Amino acid sequence: MEELSYYEILEVSQDADKATIKKAYRKMAKKYHPDKNAGDKEAEHMFKLINEAYQCLSDDQQRSIYDRYGKEGLQGMGGGGGHSSAGFDDLGAIFEEMFSGFGGGGRRRQNPADMEKYPLDMNIDMTISFQEAVFGCEKEIEYRYKKSCEACKGTGAKDGKLSTCQQCKGQGQVYMKQGFMTFSQTCPVCHGTGSSATEKCKQCHGAGYEEVKETITVTVPQGIDSGNRLRVSGKGNIGKNGRRGDLYITFDVRPDKHFIRNDNDVYIEIPVFFTQAVKGDILTIPSLTGELELKLQIGTKDKQRYTFRGEGIEDVHGHGKGDLIAIVDIQYPKKLSDEQLELLNKLQESFGVESKPHEGVLDSVIDKMKSWFK
Question: Is residue 194, in this structure, part of any structural domain at all?
């Protein structure tokens, strides 16, 4: 995968001023902060890149060198490795916004008994065929959702009894120092609740929830594409208070043998014999809904495209249909009989000089070369 530039990491243009860069940094740092993405290695990596990018772009000298020579130019001055102190003041401010009182007792926490151990919304993947994506369908799916354990009321502790977490002393955060900065992260033992189970619940083994199997039928709209998500309201995980989240289905569409999709347009390659391309012909070709008539122009070229408006895929949001594009793939015989060769020679001779276009190029080049030696 191609490495992102510092500007791409912060999602700003190369001519962005300092205020724009600072604003983008604060937004991205809050989005990918480890405390908001516990256990997400990609978010953790992105957070490091965001800080590295801001440390460079917020320093005029480093930014100038980076713009001219890239990361390699910064290596000699310690750039690109996070040695500059630029950006840490902003990071501290972001911590204060995120934790409402950083440095003064930590952020306010919910009652541990009320905190959910898992997101209420959930995601699953579904693979469907090209035909199902184009025309829509109904699919029966079986999945497992989380439900708060009734025996421990979702706490994970026997009889629902929790005690103060000994790792963070009830703070929900553990702190570490790096130079002159103090960083915080969610306690790995209590996961930010400040409380832990002295004895685990036997029914859920301390998880605080149980998994329940469910089968539902979903209507897949026509025009769905790979990467599209469908929300099924009220079919996600169930929390302690009985509130249920939503189920999100992410689709993966299997490719078709003949049709190639690009957004709502569909491409199909049509084999055409060379004589059909030369003289122009009328062909019957397949479409998504049946057959179409393709009228070849005289002298049709290889890879020439013919577009059929509105014969593509219905937009999933109802914004009309795409097009079907037929791409000509000219086929030539691999062997010729004596009779066929004779017929082709006669045909070629009937065109006269038109059948030997290369001779015109040859004469032109020879005349030019003669002028070189005059």
Answer: no
268, 326 contact by CB (below 8 A): yes
- How far is Cα 260 from Cα 267, in angstroms, rounded to an integer? 5
User: Given the DSSP bridges, would you call strands 265-273 and 324-331 parallel, antiparallel or unpaired?
Assistant: parallel
- Residues 77, 139 within the same domain: no
344 and 217 within one domain:
no
CA nearest to 78, candidates 124, 293, 86, 216: 86
Both tokens assigned to 5:
């530039």
The residues, ordered by sequence, that sit 6+ positions from 194 with a Cβ below 8 Å of its Cβ are 109, 112, 164, 165, 168, 170, 171, 172, 187
56 annotated among ligand-binding-site residues = no
Q: Based on the domain organization, do 293 and 368 belong to the same domain?
A: no
**Is 204 marked within a binding site?**
yes
Query: How many domains is the chain built from?
Result: 4
Q: What is the DSSP string of 320-344?
A: -B--EEEEEEEE--S---HHHHHHH
Residue 61 placed within a domain: yes
The beta-strand segments (E) located in 45-202 are 122-128, 137-148, 162-164, 173-178, 181-186, 195-197
Q: Is residue 108 part of a domain?
A: no
342 in a structural domain: yes
pTM above 0.70, yes or no: no
| pLDDT tier for residue 182 given thresholds of 50, 70 and 90 | low
- Between CA 78 and CA 73 the distance in angstroms is 10
Residue 152 counted as an annotated binding residue: yes
217 in the same domain as 270: no
Spatial distance between the Cα atoms of 228 and 218, rounded to a whole number of angstroms: 15
Indicate whether 316 and 345 sit together in one domain: no
pLDDT tens by residue, 42-90: 888 888 888 888 888 988 888 888 887 777 767 655 444 444 444 444 4
165 is in an annotated binding site: yes
Residues 238 and 317 grouped into a single domain: no
pLDDT above 80 for 117: no
The answer to the question of whether 137 is labelled as a binding residue is: no
Range of the domain at 350: 338-372
Q: Are residues 241 and 136 in the same domain?
A: yes
149 is in an annotated binding site: yes
N-term to C-term CA, the chain: 56
Flag whether pLDDT at 269 surpasses 60: yes
Chain position carrying tokens 């926490």:
109
